[in-house]
Each structure stands twice: as C-alpha cells, then as structure tokens.
Design a protein that fits this description.
Elements (H helix, E strand, L loop, with lengths): L1 E2 L27 H9 L19 E2 L22 H6 L5 E2 L11 H7 L3 E7 L1 H11 L9 E5 L2 H4 L5 H16 L3 E6 L1 H5 L4 H12 L3 E5 L9 H11 L24 E4 L4 H12 L7 E3 L15 E4 L5 H10 L3 E2 L7 H15 L7 H11 L1 H7 L3 E4 L6 H10 L3 E5 L10 H13 L8
Parallel strand pairs: 4-5, 4-6, 6-7, 8-9, 8-10, 10-11, 12-13
Antiparallel strand pairs: 1-5, 2-3
Helix pairs in contact: 1-14, 6-8, 9-11, 12-13, 12-15, 15-16
Length: 438
C-alpha cells in the first residue's frame, strides 16, 4: 500500500487549502435550481416496464406525467404516519443497480469544510484516476487528502493492513499534523473485507490522533451518500450531555430556546445566510456538523433539537436520534424559496417560536428570481436518479412553473423525507399538477 503519485496526492506535498468552492448557491436564491433545470430541460427517454414496488426492492424508481414514482428504499419503509403520502404518490420500482457518481467524491468538499482534517482514500488506481479527474487538483495546490493505492500484496493478504496504514498515517501526521484522519473505504476494501473499523481504534491509541472510518463505496451508496457516511461517523463521536443549557434569544425581547444543531455540509456563505434567517426569528444556532474544526463538534443530548439541510443525510439523522437521543426536526429542505420558508417554519414550531415575516421573505425571493422563473415557466423536465436532491428540486421547480415528466431517485428514505414529500403533494395540488396515474 503506497501513496499514489499521479499529480494530486503525494503525502509530502499536502498543504494549504485552495479557495473553498460552493456546493450550491444561496438557499433563498433560486438561481442554482434554475440553472440546473435549464441544463436538464427536455423529455424523458424510452420507458421500461416498472416492477411492482416493495419495501425491500432496490432499483430505479420514477414518476411520470400522470403521477409520481421514486426509487424504493433498500430497507423497510415506515407506514402509518406516511399513509397519506403513500396514498397521494404513486411509487414504482425498476429493479437493477443504480448508476450514479462515485460517493468518494465527497472528499472534494469535505476536506475544504473541515479545515484541520486529512482524508485518506484507500482504493485502487481507478479510484485515484477518478479523484484526480473529478477534482482536478494538482500537487502544487497541496490538498489535504491522499490516495492509498492497494497493491497485490494488500489484496492477497500478504501484507499487514495494520502495518501499512500505520506507516501511512504516521507519515501524514509528521507532514501535516491534522486534528483528525478520515479513512475512506472504497469498493475494493469492501470486496477484500478490509477491517478498517477494527484497525482504526488501534491506530488511534498508538498515534494519539482521532481516526474516523467512513465507508463510501459505490456498491452500497449513491453519489451524495458519501457525505452521509462521513457525517454519521462523526456524529457518533459527538459528546453527549444529559442536559445541554438553553440558548439565549438572538433578538431583544425574544425568549430563550432549546439548543439547535444543524447537520449538513454547506459553503460558509450559505451557512451564514441560513443562520441570519434563523436569527431574524430569534433563534441562535448552537452548532454545525461538520464544523470547520474537528474539535468544535457540537455537544448533543436528549434536549438538543437537530435538523438537516440536505435530503441525503438519513444515516446521520438516525445516529443522532437513536444513539445520541436528539430530537429530530422533520422538515422540508431549504432548497428554493418555498423550501427555505417551510424549513424555518418547522424549526420555529419545534422550538415553540412564532415565525414572523416568512411569507413576505418568500415572495421577495420569488420576485428576485422572476427573470429565471419566466424562462422555466411551462417547460417540462425529467430527472435521472443521481444525488437524492431530485424530490426537493422537483418540488421547487414545480413551484417555479415547470411540469415534471418523471423523477428518479437512487434511494428513498420515506421517514426522513416525509415532510418534503408532503410539501411536494401540497405544491402539486395548489398548482393543479398532480394527476392520478392511469
């Protein structure tokens, strides 16, 4: 096992971070969704006969002009409280593997977000080629990630995985002195059954640096779920307190409220905008996950309210709720002006705060984006399943005046996206665009 030397990841040339690139534009601004829609305009390809959808089936799900269909989750889906959603939407499942961007690409934005981290991707030459071409970062930029390329001795178990990773991690600490090392597993480490979870605690005890293991292989996860596995592993490291102190009000005259933690990786400018929107409601954000420094991971506990900013973070939410006993705010996601308003309203309701002026804020945002929505009006769009943002984008673009021909999504957790699905139904009903499948 050795550091790949193909122009982007030598251990001795890992240094200053290049300028942070944004994942998406402002959530109250609709430009990103409008541009994405303009790129995807057109009709869908030939339809295949869908398989009957069951809770255990995986594959591509779609929704057509006469209804809505999305991919089934690989795990049993919650029922009862989601009966209304199930009755209003038509879910079809097309069996077979889904094809998405590789989830190890999450390294490209997470290493910039967590400034004192180092990401070590353990894989083959193919993984190295992908990272080099996908991110386009040369060694002169000295990024804080590297590729540990597996050799024949690693794959055939002739070499000790513990010894090899100890050598590489020691070299990383000497050169870069990170606060945390994140080991990213790939398809190859899954196939050869490399016990990274068993190796990490031993290395952490020897080297004195936290080592977090995240499985981001393309066999089990879609594009954006790589971030979900990393944040879920970090959520397991958050300290738990029996009672986290309440947060003082952000505005004079407002009341104090329970601690609020937001999870999901966003550019600093977008995160600041969301904090300002919450501050206008008298809400103070106690912490973000991930934070810019690993040591600044927020304290969690039974009285801490947590909310996500992206629809692909269901595993992170599960860790926070089941293992850390936090209170999850099930809200639509802040994508588009309508989603941002619903997201803030859900947070206010959970914290027992009366929202103020959100409808005016939404109208102003739509008015500011009128130049783009006029372009999108009465046009049709088809979504291929790729990044789990499809449902949120479909809802926002429907509100912008578009017609959804079909939406595909590689993984659907109906419990985590229940509020988003409900808002999609309400949007379609308001605009009279939801028709039963014939």
């Amino acid at each position: 096992m050795y550091f790949q030397r193909r122009g982007f990841c030598q251990a001795k040339r890992l240094g200053k971070v290049p300028g942070e690139s944004g994942m998406r534009a402002s959530r109250f601004c609709f430009e990103a969704a409008a541009l994405g829609a303009a790129m995807a305009l057109g009709t869908g390809g030939p339809r295949r006969r869908p398989q009957h959808c069951t809770a255990q089936t995986s594959g591509a799900q779609r929704f057509g002009r006469h209804g809505i269909a999305m991919q089934a989750a690989k795990r049993p889906l919650a029922r009862g409280d989601l009966k209304a959603v199930g009755d209003a939407l038509t879910f079809d499942c097309e069996t077979g593997n889904y094809h998405t961007f590789c989830p190890i690409s999450c390294v490209s934005w997470l290493y910039q977000k967590i400034e004192d981290s180092f990401f070590l991707v353990v894989g083959t030459k193919t993984c190295g080629y992908f990272l080099q071409n996908a991110m386009g970062v040369m060694i002169f930029a000295e990024p804080r990630y590297a590729m540990a390329e597996l050799e024949e001795g690693d794959i055939s178990a002739q070499l000790s995985d513990l010894a090899e990773l100890r050598r590489l991690c020691t070299r990383i600490i000497e050169d870069r002195n990170p606060s945390v090392i994140v080991l990213i597993g790939t398809c190859t480490t899954e196939i050869i059954k490399m016990d990274m979870e068993g190796i990490a605690p031993k290395l952490e005890a020897e080297l004195g640096v936290p080592i977090v293991v995240a499985r981001a292989n393309g066999l089990d996860y879609a594009f954006t779920q790589g971030e979900d596995t990393v944040l879920a592993a970090m959520a397991a490291r958050c300290e738990v307190a029996d009672h986290v102190p309440t947060v003082p009000a952000a505005l004079p005259g407002a009341k104090s409220h329970a601690p609020l933690v937001i999870f999901g990786s966003l550019p600093d400018t977008v995160a600041k905008q969301l904090e300002l929107e919450l501050k206008k409601q008298g809400i103070t954000v106690s912490g973000w996950m991930p934070s810019s420094k690993y040591q600044d991971l927020p304290e969690v506990g039974p009285n801490v309210h947590v909310v996500g900013v992206n629809p692909f973070l269901s595993r992170t939410a599960s860790v926070l709720v089941r293992r850390k006993k936090c209170k999850l705010i099930n809200a639509p996601f802040p994508i588009g002006p309508d989603g941002t308003r619903a997201w803030v309203e859900a947070i206010c309701q959970s914290l027992d705060i009366e929202p103020q002026g959100l409808e005016e804020r939404e109208r102003a945002a739509w008015q500011a984006a009128k130049e783009y929505t006029e372009i999108l009006k009465d046009k049709t769009i088809f979504f291929m399943g790729d990044n789990l943002l499809e449902v949120s984008l479909a809802r926002a673009l429907t509100r912008a005046g578009m017609t959804m021909l079909e939406v595909g999504i590689p993984y659907m957790d109906k419990r985590f996206q229940a509020s988003e699905l409900q808002l999609l139904i309400e949007t379609c009903k308001d605009l009279q665009k939801l028709v039963d499948r014939g």
